[in-house]
Design brief:
The structure is a homodimer of 205-residue chains. Chain A is α/β, with parallel strands linked by helices and 205 residues long. In chain A, helix 1 runs parallel beside helix 2 and helix 2 crosses helix 3. The first copy, chain A, has an 8-stranded parallel barrel with strand order 1-2-3-4-5-6-7-8, surrounded by 4 helices. Chain A contains 9 helices and 8 strands. Chain A is globular, with a radius of gyration of 16 Å. In chain A, 40% of the residues lie in helices and 17% in strands.
């Protein structure tokens, strides 16, 4: 199976830049996660609305943290960060909401699955500029997590074309890439290279 | 009529400190607005939950920005900041939600009332540390705003005991105080002094 690709926005672009980049790259990724933590809710709302109007398929869109923005737009997919809204309460009130959640250990992964989340995002996998000074989580954990949960397992953190091969070996369902796409000089070219490597790894397996 | 008092949290206290302060002061204010912009949604959720458990009357509680936290807790009162969620869409989806909104002019005040907001918050009224380098909005506008809207009109920004008298003269329904309470060495004493002045101004009128 081809490793799935999630592009996670990095909150460094203004919304018009971000809209342009996302419209360019979305055909080459499986998911887009809007993670614009410092932008006010009204701007995030507007960005998502315009993205959908510009043709981003709604099933590719995941919204980080702001469930209220998702509800206003009728979106059914959110990513709840650590210290975000409580997952169980959220599932109770909105059973149809698909929720992605970060995990850092086997225990958290099992809890996330029990809480009904749609995918677990493990990280960070490698050293990365966005988590400066913090050690990566051991990749070795991914083996036992993989064996103990059935929901899709994604990796995040410092993922680039060269590192995809080791995540493929660990049987991850997908990878989430932030700075590797949104800090790249040419995000479209970066995404295409990642996609090509995902396809190549699938063929040689 | 006695000027109403809204205590607006200033995002400088940790949640346990804030909980302690709010439990102390809430008997002396009419409204509490939780405005903890830098705290993750899960912490804000927890804080509001504990506040209610500690006896804060739910009708005093207004939650800034995070409609999703309000929905999870069954709260019906939110304050939507500038660049927050779109008011009309919000009222359409949640007609029972009571929404407070900031206004900076007569035009905005009239629009806010038309959008169905529960109160308009004009400011900032005086120079204040939390809006450093920005000129206050002219107090003179408050006269025409007062005459043109029926919803409660509150003032915010640099309000202290001495300045209450001029806001009372402008027939404001209430005042919202942030640093005057939460930056005070003794928030309880600060709130009591504000309350006493509100009562005194009502008597001498």
């Amino acid at each position: 199976m081809v490793i799935k690709l999630m592009a996670v926005t990095d909150d460094t672009h203004d919304t018009s830049d971000l809209l342009r980049i996302l419209v360019e790259i979305h055909p080459y990724v499986d998911h887009v996660q809007i993670r614009e933590k410092q932008k006010p809710a009204g701007l995030v709302y507007q960005l998502c609305r315009e993205l959908l109007e510009e043709g981003l398929p709604v099933q590719k869109l995941w919204l980080n943290d702001r469930v209220d923005v998702a509800l206003l737009l009728g979106l059914k997919q959110v990513h709840i960060p650590g210290q975000g809204l409580p997952l169980e309460e959220l599932k109770k009130l909105y059973p149809d909401l698909r929720i992605g959640a970060p995990v850092h250990s086997l225990e958290e992964a099992v809890q996330a699955e029990a809480a009904g989340v749609a995918y677990a995002l493990y990280g960070h996998c490698f050293s990365t500029a966005s988590k400066k000074g913090k050690s990566p989580q051991p990749l070795a954990n991914l083996g036992s997590i993989r064996q103990n949960i059935r929901i899709p397992l994604y990796g995040i953190g410092g993922i680039d074309v060269e590192r995809l091969v080791s995540l493929k070996a660990l049987e991850l369902d997908g990878v989430a890439v932030m700075s590797g796409i949104f800090s790249a000089k040419d995000p479209l070219s970066a995404v295409k290279k990642l996609r090509e490597e995902c396809l190549r790894l699938d063929e040689i397996q």
